[in-house]
Amino acid sequence: MLMKRIGLFTSGGDAPGMNACIRSVVRTAHHHEVEVVGIMEGYCGMLKKQFKELQNIDVAGIINRGGTILRSSRCPEFREKENRKLAYNNLREAGIDGLVAIGGNGTFTGAYHFEQEFGMPTMGVPGTIDNDLYGTDYTIGFDTACNTAMTAIDAIRDTASSHNRLFIVEVMGRDAGFIAVNSCVASGGEAVMLPEDEQDLPQLMEYLDEKRKKKIFGSIVVVAEGDQVGGAIELDRIIKEKYPQYDTRVTILGHVQRGGIPTCLDRILASRLGMHATEALIRGEKNKAVGIINDEVVFNSFDDSIHHAKSIHPDLLKMSHILVS
Ligand code: F6P
């Protein structure tokens, strides 16, 4: 089908750099004389016909802004087939021939079913701070989130050393420890707790025991929110129970990691992915997610993207153990 008009939306957790991607999609489409309709609030906007024509001027001055001008949502209504039918009818009524979806695994899963059932051609762009998407080395927002976490941990280090305290810092990552391991290694944290590592708790306890014997109590443990132990508060309880000598403090970084000025890396990544997703859709590709592997643009089917897991590079896991004293 010749694309004349495409729909663009952001869905799931927002990520710094999404605006840079929106700008890139809009300007690439117009470069190829294709119109763009912004769909507000992700899949929910399709149900409520929240559509807005986007011109190049509408995306001026947003490359440097966190969040998403199209707003985002998690949309449980879209799990119902009858709602997906309504969304399809609304999109067709608005003259939309194809979609660019910016988001994470949930976004791609929705797009996969939507295309299978109603044949709406869709290209996905990986946007999530978690970096937990197969088929791309990095997702939009991950670098900014890691920098935010690293800067916060650097600040915590000052007070941890001054008071000889053990700080437990919780970072985001529901199912994956990419932010945790990167921010920990980058800020010189003493230990990291990851959803991917089932042996992390006994190892941490052994480490704390050794330090305790040497009377060294000032350390930083970075814990991913999705770690099996159950997050920073639960970890604090376990440590206090076993080693009451530690004066512990908990910091949960939370949604501060989701906002803020996108880094240069995220802006370039978002612009590049947005351009390639749009050009692929225009030339007739569909049901695929764009990614960058080893600095080359790649496309994976949504099926592959949503059914495979991405692993943390072993170097990061190794460094998180050997680069601590
Ligand atoms: O977008 C990913 C993420 O930030 C996860 O790291 C986190 O678990 C989740 O979203 C939080 O989602 P919400 O903002 O909907 O509570």
Textual characterization of the structure:
By secondary structure, the chain is of the alpha/beta class. The chain folds into 2 domains: 5-141 and 262-307, Rossmann fold; 143-259, Rossmann fold. 42% of the residues lie in helices and 18% in strands. The protein has helices spanning 18-31, 42-47, 81-93, 105-118, 142-163, 178-187, 200-213, 232-242, 264-282, 302-307, 314-322, and strands at residues 5-10, 35-39, 51-54, 98-103, 122-126, 166-171, 191-193, 219-224, 248-252, 288-293, 296-301. The strands form 2 sheets. The protein has a 7-stranded mixed sheet with strand order 3-2-1-4-5-10-11, with helices on both faces. Helix 1 (18-31) runs parallel beside helix 9 and helix 6 crosses helix 11 (314-322). It is elongated, with a radius of gyration of 22 Å. The model has no long low-confidence stretch (mean pLDDT 97).
Q: Helicity level, as a percent range?
A: 40-55%
Spatial ordering of strands, largest sheet: 3-2-1-4-5-10-11
User: How many distinct folded domains?
Assistant: 2
Uncertain regions spanning at least 5 consecutive residues: none
Care to count the β-strands? 11
Query: What CATH architecture of the largest domain do you see?
Result: 3-Layer(aba) Sandwich
- Give the distinct bound molecules: 6-O-phosphono-beta-D-fructofuranose
Q: How do the helices and strands follow one another from N- to C-terminus?
A: EHEHEHEHEHEHEHEHEHEEHH
Radius of gyration: 22 Å
Shape: elongated
Query: Average pLDDT across residues?
Result: 97
CATH topology of the largest domain: Rossmann fold
Outline the biggest β-sheet.
Answer: 7 strands, mixed
β-strand amount: 15-25%
Oligomeric state of this protein: single chain
Question: Helical element count?
Answer: 11
Top-tier CATH class of the largest domain: Alpha Beta
Computed structural class: alpha/beta
Distance between the termini: 60 Å
